[in-house]
Write a structure and sequence with these properties.
alpha+beta; Jelly Rolls; globular
Amino acid sequence: MNVFASKNECFKCGATKDDSGGGGGGGGKDKGGKGKGGKNPDWDCPKCGMSVFGSKDECFKCHVRKDGSKGKGKGGGPHDAPAPERFSEAQWEKPRTENGLQTLGEIAPQGMEWSYVLNDESRRSFAAYLSCPFTKEQTGQFFEQSKEGTDWQQPEGAHGPIPRKTAWMVDRSGCNCMYRYGSIEVPPQIYPQWMMEVMTLIMPMCGLSDPRMWPNCCNMNLYEDGGMSVGWHSDDEALFQGKFNDIRIISLSLGVRRKFELRANWPDKGEMAVRTMMLGDGDLCTMEGMTQKHFQHRVPKEGNVNGPRINLTWRWNVKHTPKCPVGRKR
C-alpha cells in the first residue's frame, strides 16, 4: 500500500517502513496486528481455506472461526452435508468395468506419460498431470498470447473483487452462455485464433485428435503473484453436469510454478487429507470422472511466489442455458 511520507506507519495494516509493528499495537498481515486505521488483517479459514475479511470473526462459507472452533452461523461446506448414497458397500460409484470410462492416461498417445496423484476407483475420480511437453519458446508464446489476447476481468462478489483475474471463452458454435459461480457472472468471449492454435497442439496429446471432440469452452485465470488465489471449490456448475455424470477437465499452466490441491468432500477414515500437484510452466493437468462430485480443489496463496501464472481450463458445456441458441438447436 502506498503511504503518505508524513505517516510513520501503514494506515491499512499498521506496519512501519521497516516492517516492524506500528503504533497501533501490531504489524502487517503476517504479524496479525492492528494499525491506527483499526483494521485487522484478512485470514484464511482453517477448515475450507477461504480468504476471510479481517473484520469478520468467522468464515462466511463454512462458519468456522480463525482458531478452528465452530461459529454461530448456519450451513457449511460439503463436509457438513450428508454424503451421497453409495453404489455398494465397497463402491461409492458404479465401477468403470460397468460404465466404460477411460482416462486420458489410457487414451493418450504413446510417450505422453500422465502421472495420477488421484486414482480413486471407488469414487470413479481421477486427477493427473503431464510434465511440460513444450519448449520454452512455445510456453513463452502461449503466455504472451493468452495474456495480451484476452479481455481479463476481475468481477466483484459479495465480499469485494475476487482474488484473481478471469475470463470465459466459448467455441465458435454461437454459444452465449455466461459462466456463473456464486454471485459472479463472466460474459463469454469467442475462441480467438491463438486459442485454436494452442488446442491444435494440446488436444492430440490428450488422445483427442478429432476437433469435433474438443472442449467447447475454457475458463481462464490470471494470478499476478502468490497473493492471488482461488479457494476450495468444485467445478460443479450446471453447465458441466459434473455432479451427475463423468466429466473431463483439461488444463494448461503457464508462468510461475504454483501449488494445486485436492481434498475429498467426505473422506474415509485414515484417507489422505490433501493431494498436491506442483504445476509449472507448460504442465498439463486433468480431472476426470466424478471428481467434481467427490472432491474440491484450490490454488492457495503462496507468500514466496512473485511472478504471474495463467491457467487455461478446458471443459465441455453439456447443458446450455435456455436462452442460448446452441441449446435451442438441440
